[in-house]
Target: Peptidyl-tRNA hydrolase
Amino acid sequence: MKLIIGLGNPGKAYEDTRHNIGFKVVDYLASQWNAPLTQSKFKGMYSISHRPEGKVMLLKPLTYMNLSGETVSALMDYYGIELKDIIVIYDDLDLPAGQLRLRQKGSAGGHNGIKSLIQHLGTQEFNRLRIGISRPPAGMKVPDYVLQRFSKEEIPEVADAIKKSAAACETWLFKPYLEVMNQFNGT
Model:
């Protein structure tokens, strides 16, 4: 089984914030696949789809960003999912809004959700799909910025990034991740 993980924070207050773009991609896939996240286990909401490429789990950890690794590692252990079969989708301050960057490993780069995953998985080597949210304007603190909603000007490029991210995830179901990286990086 493959596991597509979108990082974010639960609750209406965080629903459309920059930090929740990973959730938005998983929600988009769930809608496209008619696979609502109705199952709950280990503080996460998920669904399992039987796709032509095999079984795929869509997951939104509900532990808040800083503890995402708890849910992911528990579900991976429970279902016997290997590291090579996961992809984590999350926001990135260092990329322009809407730009994608796919990697197979790396540090947390200051992202607390990824820090938690690295801690609980015991490795930095797992597939990632980062979506740019740009840097905050001068004088604004990063926590305030990531918990803010996208501007009207950014919404079209963010919507496009969500669709491209979903397409990258779907491509990964039948192609090696390196090929997916070559196809979608920088789009």
Observations:
- Residues 2-184 form a domain with the Rossmann fold fold (CATH 3.40.50.1470).
- The longest helix spans residues 155-172.
- The chain has one domain: 2-184.
- The two ends are 27 Å apart (CA to CA).
